[in-house]
Design goal:
Shape: elongated
Radius of gyration: 38 Å
Largest sheet: 3 strands, antiparallel
Helix content: 55-70%
Strand order of the largest sheet: 1-3-2
Number of strands: 3
Structural class: mainly alpha
Distance between the termini: 159 Å
């Protein structure tokens, strides 16, 4: 074998050994770096770093750093170790829980944080990214209560209601989120009251409905009478705002008769005034006549004249209950001016609520005086065009609130049941007199 060939072979073997040694060294260095590149260790390190940053930020009221940690802006890349975007969803929820606990336990931080838009944004984000199991000692509920009170003071009623609506409530007495029926009812009533302040009647209706589901299960109602009265008042206002005037009138009247020192006599009188308002605006029919009678027979009705907002209510309601025709005079004008915006809207037929209520009432009043009437004359009595009077009469006949028939050929409205109604009244008086006479005779015979 040629010496040159042997030398080349030794060179190749030496080069091969050096390659294997280098590869082995590279593998050894990678193994040494495995723990550093381990995802679990990386997450744990990131969590520790972020929790430490949260502690420092809370102690120093550094809202900008907190916003950097919990910000969802696209400027925070998912690889940015200063942001929780570098963590998984589970770790993000854990970090949010840690922030809530730390913030609630630091009273000085919260006192100033509520006035910072950045801090409020951070609290809003973290409250929406909590673990499903909740936070230790129900710290998130405590924070929501404090934010609710702050927003109410600032006049942000919708924001306050939304925040309070996120409270966790459970029937498990062993849970930190346990709430009694009274506490749940209080939460729902507060939410409804806030929505009513902003005219959000649909959302207020949903909240007060939830309150109604738990108010009956309140133990010791006498102890929670103030809460129950708040619920009844809120429910009546929701019915009123949703233009369910018949039910609202009944609720207001019940409240006006509350025999408790928790409500001032002036407030009870205002409740009676609201009951009168809703009774006048309610659709014509036997149920409205019953509500009108309840309010009319209330001894305090005349006292409404001393309250500017209700100074003509007793006069208008009395005419309605006595089936007298209402004219467009100062009394009716002042009544219309006292109405809330939702009580004076224009309906699809072009009439306001009070205009329709007055027309329907006058239609019934006319039916007590006539057996038939031309629509041209009826329109003059009602203060509307003949064709509109015919449409209102047709609707009332279909609803059952007016007994009669329409003759379109002659253009007349024929009322039914007037004679029988008068005869029924006479028969009732006669029957009462007969029974009274019998009782008198029985007493004398003894």
């Amino acid at each position: 074998v040629s010496p040159s060939i042997i030398e080349k072979k030794e060179v190749f073997e030496s080069r091969d050994r050096s390659t294997r040694t280098g590869t082995s060294n590279n593998r050894r260095s990678c193994l040494e770096n495995v723990p550093r590149n381990n995802p679990r260790r990386h997450t744990r390190t990131a969590m520790d770093r972020l929790t430490q940053a949260i502690d420092i930020s809370i102690q120093g009221s550094d809202y900008a750093s907190l916003n950097t940690i919990f910000g969802s802006s696209m400027s925070h890349s998912y690889g940015d170790e200063r942001s929780w975007q570098s963590l998984g969803q589970g770790e993000q929820r854990t970090l949010a829980s840690y922030f809530i606990k730390s913030a609630v336990s630091n009273a000085s931080f919260l006192q100033s944080a509520f006035n910072s838009p950045l801090a409020m944004q951070v609290m809003d984000v973290t409250l929406r990214h909590l673990p499903t199991t909740g936070v230790d000692n129900a710290a998130d509920n405590k924070l929501r209560q404090m934010i609710f009170e702050f927003k109410v003071e600032q006049g942000d009623y919708v924001g306050a209601a939304v925040c309070l609506d996120g409270l966790r409530m459970t029937d498990d007495e062993g849970s930190p989120y346990y709430m009694t029926s009274a506490e749940k009812c209080d939460v729902y009533v507060k939410i409804a009251e806030c929505y009513l302040e902003e005219g959000e009647t649909v959302k207020a209706d949903g909240a007060v409905t939830k309150a109604g589901q738990v108010v009956e299960s309140i133990s010791d109602p006498e102890q929670h009478m103030a809460l129950i009265l708040r619920y009844k008042s809120t429910y009546a206002q929701v019915l009123d705002s949703n233009r369910k005037f018949l039910q609202a009138a009944s609720r207001y009247h019940d409240l006006s008769q509350a025999n408790t020192e928790m409500i001032d006599a002036d407030d009870l009188l205002r409740m009676l005034g609201r009951a009168a308002t809703c009774a006048i605006l309610a659709p014509s029919g036997p149920q409205r006549q019953r509500i009108l009678g309840m309010v009319f027979k209330d001894e305090r009705l005349s006292q409404l004249d001393a309250i500017p907002k209700f100074e003509t209510h007793s006069a208008v309601l009395t005419k309605m209950y006595m089936n007298q025709v209402l004219r467009k005079d100062d009394e009716l004008r002042k009544f219309e001016e006292s109405l809330e915006p939702h009580q004076n809207i224009v309906k699809g037929d072009g009439l306001t609520i009070v205009e329709r209520a007055v027309i329907e009432h006058n239609m019934v009043a006319v039916s007590q005086l006539y057996t038939s009437i031309y629509f041209s004359e009826l329109g003059q009595l009602l203060g509307v065009a003949a064709d509109r009077a015919e449409k209102v009469a047709a609707k009332m006949i279909m609803d059952g609130s007016l007994s009669g028939s329409i003759d379109q050929v002659d253009g007349t409205l024929n009322f039914e049941g007037n004679e029988s109604a008068l005869l029924g009244w006479d028969e009732a008086i006669t029957s009462f007199c007969v029974q009274l006479s019998r009782v008198t005779d029985a007493v004398r015979s003894e």
